[in-house]
Amino acid sequence: MGVTPPEPTEREPALTDDTRDRIRDLASRFDDPRSALLPALYTAQEQIGYLPQEAVQEVASVLQLPCAEVGAVASFYTMFYKRPVGQHVIGVCRTLSCALLGAESLLDYLSQKLDVKVGETTSDGRFTLREVECLGACDMAPAMMVDDTYYGNLTEEKLDEILSILGWTGGEDTGPPDESRD
Length: 182
Ligand code: FES
Fold this sequence. Notes:
By secondary structure, the chain is α+β, with helices and mostly antiparallel strands. It folds into 2 domains: 17-76, Arc Repressor Mutant, subunit A, CATH 1.10.10; 88-165, Glutaredoxin, CATH 3.40.30.10. The chain has helices spanning 17-28, 37-48, 53-63, 67-76, 96-100, 103-114, 156-165, and strands spanning 88-93, 127-132, 144-146, 149-151. Helix 1 (17-28) packs antiparallel against helix 2 (37-48). It binds FE2/S2 (inorganic) cluster. FE2/S2 (inorganic) cluster binds at residues 93, 95-98, 134-135, 137-138, 141, 143.
């Protein structure tokens, strides 16, 4: 079965000095710090793996923006994760073009194959399954994104191929996931 990630606690990791410096550098390139907000949140997520409230507060502090504003942006975009995620994040589009071409059944297929519900991570920590809104790839619906890569014209066979390439072994225990995210 999949696992539901724990609620972030008050003792989540803070941004490192290097991450803060990178965010300051981003901000220095713009007149308005809001212009640096999305890359700054990416930078924080890159360090921690997701965006706990503490990271949102620290990004707001570095950019000297209201915390509520930064939090609203972090919540709005699906590419920012509020909870810890697996080594690979699978985001299946559920918007109209993809829905009409079978996205829901593909999502069910992935859910059964990985033995997780939407929003959960496989027990080996390798895959997180998510539903997302339009990926801007409607011309190749049904579509999904895995990490930073788009996949379209999906079928169950194609999903099998993609999972296989990503190291899915049918749920057999092959040890902990690699440290590196590809
Ligand atoms: S509707 Fe799925 S990518 Fe646009």
